[in-house]
Amino acid sequence: MEAGAPLGSEASVAASIPQAAGSSRGKGVRPALVTSSGPLAAGEKVLLVDPKRRRYLLELRVGAQFHTHAGIVAHDDVIGAEDGSTVVGSTGRRFMVTRPTLSDVVLKMPRGAQVIYPKDLGAILMAADLGPGQRVLEAGVGSGALSLAMLRIGVEVVGYEIRSDFAARARQNVASWLGSEVSYRVEERDVYEGIDERGLDRIVLDLPEPHRVLGHAEGALRSGGILLAYLPTVNQVASLRAALEDSRFGFAETFEVLHRTWHVEERSVRPDHRMVAHTGFLTTARLLS
Ligand code: SAH
């Protein structure tokens, strides 16, 4: 028996999903963010949505029950169902069950540091022109949300993270959601002190003073490579842009992503009243020879 709180509660997610790689994964079950098709299997992580659209993440276990405000769902009713099915809970109410998306996972996975939001993760993949087989240095790694987004499209990631607890959390999140087939190495170190890698395709930075990395980045990136920095305040952006002016980087650009969802009902189609109004600014530049 396990207690269910809506997806908004991190504690419930942490409690319902063992994080160790392969923890209770059934034989042949693929990690949640690796494309799977066919019926939902024991060991898979699924998203359960109740009639009030409250969302829960759970790992399917034979014989287990999931308790929610809208009633109890037997895992055995979900195991064997198709992705996108409806199952009926103990109170007769209907739940939708589906495999989680990367956005679902990023917003609700256990985290140490603040994660980069899905709207910005999508923009980063394009702005840094990330693709399969590229060698990318990421610093700091935090909870590994950006790592997940890059690894899932086939990027080879080396991460520098100054805090050992965050490094461990990121490794655990990646192992839990993508398995061990991805190319991911996190080193516990300060990127302001230097970068050992050479000939990198991209460097992506999510830390307070990216201008302190530019000198090291000039030696570590290949010519034409792209540096991207995510920064929460415009003061930090100004410092970075000033430092870029005095560097071998060119084509500097800064932008932000505004994502406004809409309320859509027959008689009322309008923007939602609330939105995430600010997250961070993205700055990119290319290394010139
Ligand atoms: N992008 C991450 C979140 C990163 S939060 C995600 O999406 O999950 C910023 C991280 O930078 C923190 O974990 C912090 O410990 C790390 N950090 C700060 N300064 C650093 C430095 N000089 N070298 C390496 N990591 C650093």
The strand line-up of the biggest sheet is 10-9-8-11-12-16-13
Per CATH, the class of the largest domain reads Alpha Beta
Q: State the CATH topology of the largest domain.
A: Rossmann fold
* Helix/sheet category: alpha/beta
Instruction: List how many beta strands DSSP finds.
Output: 16
| Alpha-carbon distance between the two ends | 61 Å
- The ordered string of helix (H) and strand (E) elements is EHEEEEHEEHHEHEHEEHEHEEEE
Domain count: the total is 2
Radius of gyration: 21 Å
Q: How does the major sheet shape up? A: 7 strands, mixed
State the CATH superfamily name of the largest domain.
Answer: Vaccinia Virus protein VP39
What integer is the average pLDDT? 90
* Distinct small molecules bound, one entry per kind: S-adenosyl-L-homocysteine
Oligomer: single chain
β content, as a range? 25-35%
Shape designation: globular
Number of helices: 8
